[in-house]
Amino acid sequence: MMQRRMLTKEDEAAVGADETEVRREDQDKINRFSRLHQREMSLEDELKTKAKDKEDLEEISNELELADEDDKIPFVPKLQLARYKIGDSFISLPLPQVQEMLSSSTGKIEEEVSTVEEKLSEIREEMQQLKVALYARFGRSINLET
């Protein structure tokens, strides 16, 4: 169990001598770092969601490629339909059209993923610059580890 104790006069003086005054520009940098950190976490969550969506679309595409000839509609020769979700509705469309739509959706998600990754990279770079500046000013008095 951890015991608490009072600081001695020497310890108290040593802590007080180590403190650095926080200027307005320092506080602005700290606030900027905090906002960037929040944005970083948000973008990481978005990236995970998009990666999951992409994985799901690829899995569906693979399943459709493996679809049997048994799934054909009885009275329409050589026409295979698949259900495609648009919004809250499912629409039956010819299989080639569904595969094309899945392919374009996958491409769109890949573009969105690369955009999010670029934003994350920029944010992390700026955060690193702020860390360097703030640690140079405050040393061990500040904790910016995320």
Textual characterization of the structure:
By secondary structure, the protein is mainly alpha-helical. The chain has 3 helices and 2 strands; from the N terminus they run H-H-E-E-H. The chain has helices at residues 9-18, 24-65, 95-138, and strands at 81-86, 89-94. It has a two-stranded antiparallel ribbon. Strand 1 and strand 2 (89-94) form a beta hairpin. Helix 2 (24-65) packs antiparallel against helix 3 (95-138). The radius of gyration is 28 Å and the shape is rod-shaped. It starts with 8 loop residues before the first helix and ends in an 8-residue tail after the last helix. The relative contact order is 0.14. The model is unreliable at 73-77 (pLDDT under 50).
DSSP strand tally:
2
| Rounded Rg | 28 Å
Shape: rod-shaped
Strand order of the biggest β-sheet: 1-2
- Multimeric state: single chain
Main sheet summary: 2 strands, antiparallel
Q: Stretches where pLDDT falls below 50 for ≥5 residues? A: 73-77
Helix and strand content put the structural class at: mainly alpha
Question: What would the average pLDDT be, to the nearest integer?
Answer: 81
- What's the order of the H and E elements? HHEEH
Distance between the termini: 28 Å
Q: Bin the strand percentage.
A: 5-15%
- Supply the number of helical segments: 3
Helical residue percent?
55-70%
